[in-house]
Amino acid sequence: MIIYVGSDHGGFKMKEMLKKWLADKAYQVADMGPAQYVEGDDYPDAAAAVAQKVSEAGPGEARGILICRSGAGVDIVANKFRGVRSFLAISPDHAYQVRHDDDVNVLCIASDFTDEATVPKIVQIFLSTPFAKEERYTRRLNKISDIENKRE
């Protein structure tokens, strides 16, 4: 599985730290930008690049991690893409629940509100927790897919 990462200027430092952590854990990582710190860049650019890759990859083939100051901007953008289920994590327990119940595939992190030491814990849970595949969870995800399909 490939992990696509992206940020804006507010999440750039945390993204660089996270890329190193992921590489040290032998994950395949693709940085969707920015390649360098650019003050005042726009979060939709990297968020769309990551979400597009996750959407195109199909179920279970890729995950995305996005970082901006609030985490909300990148989360909003990512959820515009078909098949992407993005969430803004507040803790490792939160990451567990949404992976387990909702089969989320894009993790958003708020760099201004998430301690750097907590980020690897959240990411590890996000990457290692399987979807439960219980009937009620699958039924709910199918309803989300139906909503996506009706909007076209």
Automatic annotation (TrEMBL):
Lineage: Bacteria, Candidatus Liptoniibacteriota
Organism of provenance: Candidatus Liptonbacteria bacterium RIFCSPLOWO2_01_FULL_52_25
Molecular functions per Gene Ontology: intramolecular oxidoreductase activity, interconverting aldoses and ketoses
Protein family according to the UniProt entry: Belongs to the LacAB/RpiB family.
Annotated Gene3D superfamilies: Sugar-phosphate isomerase, RpiB/LacA/LacB
Biological processes, Gene Ontology terms: carbohydrate metabolic process
Origin superkingdom: Bacteria
PANTHER family: DNA DAMAGE-REPAIR_TOLERATION PROTEIN DRT102, RIBOSE-5-PHOSPHATE ISOMERASE B
Cross-referenced InterPro entries: RpiB_LacA_LacB, RpiB_LacA_LacB_sf
Protein's name in the database: Ribose-5-phosphate isomerase
